Amino acid sequence: MAIDSVLHDTLIVDLTQALAGPYCTMLLGDMGAQVVKVEPPGVGDQSRTWGPPFVEGESTYFLSVNRNKRSLALDLKTDEGRQALHRLVGRADVFIHNTPRVSSQLRLGVDADTLLALNPRLLYTSISGYGATGPHAERPGYDMIAQGESGLMSINGEPEGEAMRYPIPLADMTAGVYAALGVVGALLARQRTGQGQVIDLSLLESHSAWLAIPASAYLNGGQVPRRLGNAHPSIVPYQVFMARDKHIIVAVGTQRLWERFCQVLGIADTIMNNPRFATNANRLAHRTELIELLQEILVRKDAPDWLEAFRDAGIPSGPINSVPETLSHPQLVQRGFTVELEHPLTGVVKSLANPIHFSGTQVSYRLPPPRLGEHSAAILGELGFTTDEIAMFEEQRTV
Questions:
Q1: Tens digits of residue pLDDT in 170-201
Q2: Is residue 30 among the annotated active site residues?
Q3: Domain with 311 in it: what CATH number?
Q4: For residue 52, is the peptide bond before it cis, meaning its omega torsion is within 30 degrees of 0?
Q5: What domain count does the chain have?
Q6: Catalytic: which of 14, 143, 172, 200?
Q7: Which pTM value belongs to this model?
Q8: Does residue 220 belong to any structural domain of this protein?
Q9: pLDDT band at 3 (very low <50, low <70, confident <90, very high)
Q10: Quick one: residue 380, left, alpha or beta (phi over 0 = left, psi -120 to 50 = alpha)?
C-alpha cells in the first residue's frame, strides 16, 4: 500500500512547552504524524504569552513552532485529567514531555514506569536541561544557560569582546532536532523489536555536540579554541570583508580557490607568490598581515561587483542578508520555504517550511497552530468519552 507521508500512522502525545519539544513535534507533524498537544486549561503553553509581537492576541513566537497539531486542554492535577491522558497514551506511539523533576512526573502521572506499563510499545521521550541522570539531572534548563555551559558562547564573538550567545534559541532548536531524530530512530527499532523504550535528550548535550571540531582540536591537538569573530579557525581567507558599500563573505577553502581568488583581485604576481601566503598553513601563521592586505583591495569596489566576479570564477561568496532579504531570497522562494495556513483568528499565518525534501513521501502542512483547547471535545470523543462526560469535564474545568 502506498503511503503519502513518512509518519502517516504515528500518534504523538506532546506534553511540552516553549520551544525544544514543540519544535520537535512540529517537525514530526510535518512528516505526517498526528500530534496532540496537551496544555494546561486557561493558560496553555507558556509561549502563548511571549510577546510582542502578537497578532489578534496570538503570540508570533507560539505560531512559529506549533502547526500540524491539535490542542487538548487537560488539567493533569485532577484524577479525570490523568485518566483522559492515560487513555490517550494507551493509543499513542510516542509521548514527549519536558518535565525535569521526577516528583512532578509522578504527581502528574507521566513518569516512564507508569506510561510504559500502560503501553509497552510507547516511545517515552524526555527533553530536559541536563538529562534524566547525573548530578544536575533535575535542574531547570533554559536555552541561554545551555549556550553558556556548552562552551559555544566562549568561542562566539570578537577576539577582544565578550562571549556572545547566538541571537536565536539555538540550544532549544538543536535539542528539538535531535529529539525528532531520536524518535524516528526508535520507531525503526520498534519495527524490529516490538518494544518501546525511553529516549533521554538534554539541551546541554545537544548544544555541546556542536563542539565536534573545536573539541577535537583540544582533545587531540591540545589547542584551546578562542574567539575569532567572523574568521575561520583553520582556513584563511574564509571570513567577512568590507567592500566599498557593504560587507560580504568570501570562503576560499582550497588552494585552487586561493589561486582563483588572487587572480580576481589582481594579486597573482604579488601576494599569491609571497612565500608567507603560499599555503593555507602559511596564511594561518600570517593571518593578520594577509587580511589587512586583502581588505585594502576589497574596499575599492562595491559588493555586487565583487560578488559577480567571484561567482564567475567559481569562488564561494555571498552577501550578509537581513531577515527580510533572506525571506525573499529567490532560491528559498522557489523551493517554497514560507508556508501559509488559514488561522481562525489571524487569517493567514505564515511560518518557515520544513527543510527536508522527500521525493515520494512529502512533508505536508495541514493544520494551523491551534487555539488553546480547540480540539479538546473532539479528541475526548475519539477516546470514547460520552457527551455527558465531556460536558462534566468542561464544567469542572478539567478541560
A1: 999 999 999 999 999 999 999 999 999 999 99
A2: no
A3: 3.30.1540.10
A4: yes
A5: 2
A6: 172
A7: 0.93
A8: no
A9: low
A10: alpha
